[in-house]
Amino acid sequence: MINLKTLEIWLVTGSQHLYGEATLQQVAAHSQEIAKALNSDLRIPLTVVYKPVVKTPEEIYATCMEANASANCIGIVAWMHTFSPAKMWIRGLKALSKPVCHLHTQYNRDIPWATIDMDFMNLNQSAHGDREFGFMMSRMRINRKVITGHWRDAAVLEELGAWTRAAAGWHDWQGARFVRFGDNMRYVAVTDGDKVEAESQFGFATNTHGIGDLVAMINQVTDSATDTLVKEYADTYRISSALLQDAALRDAAKIELGLKAFLEEGRYKGFSDTFEDLHGMVQLPGIAVQRLMHAGYGFAGEGDWKTAALVRAMKVMGSGIPGGASFMEDYTYHFDPANPLVLGAHMLEICSSIADGQVACEKHPLGIGGKADPVRLVFNSAAGPAINASLVDMGQRFRLLVNVVNAVAPPQDLPKLPVARVLWKPYPDMKTACTAWILAGGAHHTCYSQQLNAGHMQDFADIANIELALIDQDTRLREFRNELRWNEACF
């Protein structure tokens, strides 16, 4: 599991010298108390760090530059305890490169009716101090998250926790490296895209290696390492005695070990491959990809580097939340008018983090790719709420498309389907969801997450400064079409 607690969010409180030293000491004490409470709340998975109260343009600029330089700081939570004249913030905000959450709160929850006086009023000025700060952020056209409510309220803590997860996903992309083994699946459009623009917009780099580079690593795997991994397979999954004696299982284990070594040596956070470019490999990577995804790597098939990066980001964002996330594809439909369903799957590569019950390790023919029968993990996915997300290159910009879905148990057994799979009902209904997805140009590849919701993805899109097109319970096609048109003009 990815440890988010190593990352930091800084609580930066604004004030000014107008109120005197005694008031500033109270501001600092209140800010420290809030930071400590946020840091100890399980709904916020990162470490919350108190920073000294900023009272001048110089202090604000220095704090912003310190945040930029800190490897562990992934964002700032700003709060104006008193009135903080916002012209003081201009230089710092212009320099700040980390995401910002504006927490519109105040130290006290209730007005102390019997004792309130002007000293209290001078100290507790968030109601208009935050408006001053908000104006400047809007005037400077800075994307930020605004959360309103008392800092002890459950809804506030949940919303803040979700934003910190989005900030963590964004942070993980900065300087990230993804490898594409071979090229894009030939003639396919949506899985390709502009890697230069993506690196400029998102901060991650994608570069191609010939499959021979990976094969060389696979060929270096020792017999003893292979034996150890095969034993791990036997201890972890339901597996037949015949497969345990099959050379195909050892070949699959060598692929996993070689692939893992390649990723570690190159410091890659994810990868893609395609069955059209596997010269020198015995079988397509199946169980290897599934297990590496479970370990936190991003992946997508057919050279789809954008979805591989998105899978990685969503795994980081969901770390510690029950459930899992996986590369996914809308594979086939069940158009029963009484119970329409989507069957999500792929040839081999669905992450076992979304599995329901025991996972089987099996070998079956694939029918494409021209390789030996590959080993893969087979399972059903757990029922419950989930999302499908797709990162789409629209030519001049990127679009993040999200569909809220509800996974269901298969109404019947699938004894002859030798792949991992999940069945879901898309919101608001099958016809609307599928039509809206196609109107938005959504890919057939997605990241399927049981851990995240539309709110996480909206925060992520806002941090990335890209469009989010959401298909959910409230989607109506006429409004959705208009939204796409308006977003085209906006972005």
List the helices and strands and how they pair.
Layout (H helix, E strand, L loop, with lengths): L7 E7 L6 H20 L6 E4 L6 H13 L3 E8 L9 H6 L4 E5 L13 H6 L2 H14 L5 E4 L5 H20 L3 E5 L13 H8 L2 E5 L1 H9 L3 H14 L4 H4 L2 H20 L3 E4 L13 H8 L3 E4 L3 H13 L7 E10 L6 E5 L14 E4 L11 E4 L5 E10 L4 E11 L12 E6 L3 H10 L5 E5 L4 H11 L2 E5 L5 H14 L1
Parallel strand pairs: 1-2, 1-3, 3-4, 4-5, 6-7, 6-8, 8-9, 15-18
Antiparallel strand pairs: 10-11, 10-17, 11-16, 12-13, 14-15, 14-17, 15-16
Helix pairs in contact: 6-13, 6-15, 8-11, 9-11, 11-12
In short, what is this structure?
With 491 residues, the chain is an alpha/beta fold. Helix content is 39%, strand content 22%. Helix 6 (154-173) runs antiparallel to helix 13 and helix 8 (211-219) packs across helix 11.
Q: Give the termini distance in whole angstroms.
A: 35 Å
Query: How many strands, which pairing sense, and closed or not: the largest β-sheet?
Result: 6 strands, antiparallel, barrel
Specify the number of helices: 16
Could you say which structural class the secondary elements and strand pairing correspond to? Answer: alpha/beta
- Give the averaged pLDDT, no decimals: 96
The rounded Rg comes to: 25 Å
Q: Which of globular, elongated, flat, extended, rod-shaped describes the shape?
A: elongated
What share of residues are in beta strands?
Answer: 15-25%
Biggest sheet strand order reads: 10-11-16-15-14-17
Q: Tally of extended strands?
A: 18
Q: Tell me which oligomeric state these chains represent.
A: single chain
Helix content: 25-40%
Low-pLDDT windows of residues: none
